[in-house]
From TrEMBL:
Organism of provenance: Lysinibacillus sphaericus
Protein name: Uncharacterized protein
């Protein structure tokens, strides 16, 4: 009888571990779903991305490498 109890305990431990792994997998799948949803949302609105890019291109601020790298010119 003692051997059967040990086997049952081991089985319960393995089931607990499996449940934890499944929980983690579900969390990761939820995160992946959120990423996919965001990606689809961005792909559905390419005009907004293009508008933002055009605004950046038209911006009066130009990034220029300083002549002397030890000094920062503003």
């Amino acid at each position: 009888m003692d051997r059967t109890a040990k086997d049952v305990d081991r089985t319960v431990e393995m089931m607990d571990r499996t449940a934890k792994v499944v929980d983690r997998t579900v969390e990761m799948m939820d995160r992946a779903t959120k990423v996919v949803d965001r990606t689809i949302k961005v792909m559905d609105s390419p005009d907004k991305a293009t508008d933002r890019t055009n605004k950046l291109k038209e911006s009066p601020i130009k990034l220029v490498a300083p002549l002397n790298p030890t000094k920062i010119y503003i």
